[in-house]
Amino acid sequence: GKREDIQEIYRLANRFDFKVIPTGSHLFMSCEPTIPIYDYLTIDPKRMDRIWIDEENMYAVVEPYTTWARLQVEAMKRGLTCYIPTAGAQTSVVANLTFQGYHMAAHRLGAGYRSMLAMEWVLPNGEIMNIGSASSPGGEYFWGEGPGADLRGMVKGVWGFFGGLGMCTKAGIKLFPWPGPDKLPTKGDTPDKRVFLPEDKFKIYAIGFPTLDSVIDAMYEIGRSEIGTVCVYMEKGWLAMETCLSQEHFFSMVEAEGYQESVENMLVVMLAAYTSKKQLEYEDDVLRTIMDDYGGKLLPDEVQEGMAQVLVPDLMIRPNVVFRGFRVAGSFFDVKGAHDSIDHGAVAHKTTLPFIKDFVKDKSPPFVDDEGGHHYICSYDFGHSGFFEMPFIYEPDADYKNLKTLLKGLTARAYLHDARHKTYPGGFVVSVGADIMGPFMGGFQKIIRKVKATFDPNYVSNPGWPVLMWSRLSKDGIKYAMNSYRDKRSPGGPER
Fold it and tell me: Among 16, 53, 138, 326, whose CB has the most other CB atoms within 10 angstroms?
């Protein structure tokens, strides 16, 4: 598979009027047809899985089917690593890099989109757009900006274009120093496999604070001190979800006497010896001073063990959390999530948790009333910003239409709740959501429509994403209805 194949597919789509959905590892809803009146072709890039690593300059170049796990394994052999999203190490690097890029090691490594370097992009008309240093003749992929305007902003903002603006066929991505071993040292078998990081290189702590406000204050102070690799506030259900072996085990843990108190107002911090053991000792001393200042105490030994051996490796180093979440209930749904300040995440958490509890209280099953136990607030860039996410878990209902109706109702109520409390959902305002929340957020959906109309005038690249083109959809819908009517009326048609 090669770039020229992708170009030819898009040219044919424009010529014969069919729609194209570009995918990576095919793990998101935008990979499926959204609008039933169109004929679709899905691009599966599994032959495009090559990796090039520039060890000296600490970056890699990857194709769409390269997964985070493969990239990290190769990088660790060279003393390097990469961010990996909480979506999981099994996802496509290119797809996530151009789509979302949120992860829980962002306290030091920064937001995922900041790892985006030069790119090779096939536009919906089949033409090539090279971004950054790749735009120069014979250029490599070490730099993402210019010449002129930084076109990465057209490819991706908080979220990307969901395949609605063509397909990225090659991307450069930053790599970071990795102070650990070239292979993650593990013991046990799935689902009870654990990681044992060298204690002279890493220190992982689960710290309890008196209140959520004191957690937030400590997060800011840790950021100001520029210590740590991971700094995440985690609700009570995370430890049980990560370490449980089954659904029954999960509920036996969260309902056990003393569990809730053992993970109350929990902040998870990982320190790493990037330069020396002295650096690790210094950061440890600073962290303990901050704990004393804000009333933090180390949580019980069994909590520390679960964090160090399972949760941190499974969420912050090589994430596998999606599959653990499915183990508990079968699926999960995000009510809210946004990249803003850490304070904004705290306000959203405080105002939204009662709203979620009220919604699910008489709807279990299919929803699991876990008391909001899987919410989190993650420090980004040493506390200069933060990302919060509010997922809850549910069991897929036999009555799929009923479940779908409930989720749509929850989403609509969440948007209204956001507008009332000014806790905007940020990344979750795409497709129909962009039209609902856009007027509260500067009318961004109008700008995105102009970009879509300019680069995809024939509406061939994943229609419906990232926004719905209502005028085009109305026109095509009428045409589809008339053609269907003629087919039914014509001799030999489906109905006479």
Answer: 53
